[in-house]
Write a structure and sequence with these properties.
alpha/beta; D-Maltodextrin-Binding Protein, domain 2; globular
């Protein structure tokens, strides 16, 4: 009880200190055109500073009398704080969301943006991750994908052709064995302390396991958890670890950022990374050198599977339903997804942004491969699942690695959660 009281007090203090701008709701003295408050977890990052300033400048040209305040919340508390604001019916005017379950679970508190953002539909990609019931609830800022990054230098040291990564699972594991023998590096860098690595694994290797029909059905909500191929994904998760292909202590290693550090220090040949602005090509280029960073899709694991890059809208900005001037807030979202702002975000953070007109040709071979793979990419499998099922999957993934739950039992529980 004491902990609950302290948490409530801390939340109340956070809401009071950050202010609510036009989102004060019950404050009749507030002028809806005076101030807009934005909650996110990115604006305090050094790599996002120039992007935020560019977006604010664009908005100021259209609305010079409106103040915009960014409040960066800690990511590990973000959705808890946001949930409390939603329950109270007041809080920020504009808020950041991850695509998928995180926003779909909360659309009752958000404004459909189809009309407000109609001019941006063709310019931006990644909308589907922010759609529920046929309505758009956020504008995508980045595209989030889960490519397999590999260290070309380690491939060379093992006598392998770094420009021709394996396209079959047997070839892939043979290459890993050669690299480990020659360099001592593990096959994969694994960090599953947060229970998130299984999401990356499902989406990265799913297209190499599920048939195209199963894949498309999964995304459409027709998920057969009794399918042998669905079970094979989670069996592979266990088999990879049992075979010693992962770096040691995966369940006690954070993905953000210890596992990435293992890959960046050349102690692992491969890692399932990101496309947005962390754990991605630009980070890896800085540590390994751009010529040594390779990108591949899943090797073919099941006959009939068609490996592809899994990607969706990554992060995006939404408008709260309680905001007094929803059109004004929507205009701020347009500034946050303007071409100039997103070009700056790509240049400073290396994020693969949602704007299809942003030039990425100077990013090096890894980003060139990523952008090319977008043409045949498909939505990520884990993004189609609810937050509840993803949370369960994270816990079960840790138990599978520990051997305290079987793959059959884990898949059964996930199917029950997904159907409920």
């Amino acid at each position: 009880m004491k902990q609950r009281v302290l948490w409530s007090a801390a939340l109340a203090a956070t809401l009071a200190l950050t202010g609510c701008g036009s989102a004060t709701g019950t404050d009749s003295s507030s002028n809806a055109s005076d101030k807009l408050v934005v909650w996110d977890w990115k604006s305090s990052d050094k790599t996002a500073t120039a992007y935020v300033e560019k977006a604010k400048a664009d908005f100021a040209k259209k609305h010079p009398k409106v103040t915009v305040e960014f409040v960066a919340q800690p990511f590990d508390q973000y959705y808890t704080l946001l949930g409390a604001a939603i329950q109270a019916g007041k809080g920020p005017d504009v808020m950041m969301f991850n695509g998928g379950g995180k926003i779909r679970d909360r659309v009752d508190a958000l404004v459909p943006l189809d009309q407000l953002l109609s001019q941006d539909k063709d310019r931006l990609a990644g909308w589907d991750a922010f759609v529920k019931g046929g309505k758009v609830y956020a504008a995508p800022v980045t595209l989030q994908g889960h490519p397999i990054y590999y260290n070309k230098d380690l491939h060379k040291k093992a006598g392998l052709d770094p420009e021709r990564p394996a396209t079959t699972w047997s070839g892939f594991t043979a290459d890993c064995a050669a690299i480990t023998k020659a360099t001592g590096a593990s096959c994969f860098a694994l960090g599953n302390k947060e229970g998130v690595a299984i999401q990356f694994f499902l989406s990265a290797f799913g297209s190499g396991i599920l048939t195209p029909q199963e894949y498309d059905g999964w995304i459409a909500g027709q998920r057969d958890w009794n399918s042998p191929n669905v079970k094979k994904v989670f069996q592979l998760w266990k088999d990879v670890n049992d075979a010693g292909l992962n770096s040691k202590g995966g369940n006690s290693t954070t993905l953000f950022n210890d596992a990435f550090g293992i890959f960046q220090s050349a102690k692992a040949a491969n890692i399932i990374g990101l496309m947005s602005d962390i754990g991605h090509w630009k980070d890896f280029n800085e540590f390994l050198g751009a010529p040594n960073v390779g990108v591949m899709t899943s090797p073919a694991i099941t006959t009939g599977a068609t490996p592809s890059l899994p990607f969706d809208g990554g992060i995006g900005y939404a408008v709260a339903k309680w905001t007094k001037d929803q059109a004004l807030a929507g205009d701020l979202v347009r500034s946050l997804t303007s071409t100039d702002a997103l070009s700056t975000f790509y240049a400073s953070a290396g994020a693969i942004v949602s704007d299809t007109t942003v030039q990425t040709s100077a990013g090096g071979p890894a980003v060139t491969k990523l952008v090319n793979d977008l043409k045949t990419g498909k939505p990520a499998l884990h993004v189609a699942l609810s937050s509840k099922t993803l949370d369960l999957m994270g816990r079960l993934s840790q138990q599978i690695l520990k051997g305290s739950v079987s793959v059959d039992e884990a898949v059964k529980q996930l199917g029950e959660s997904d159907r409920s």
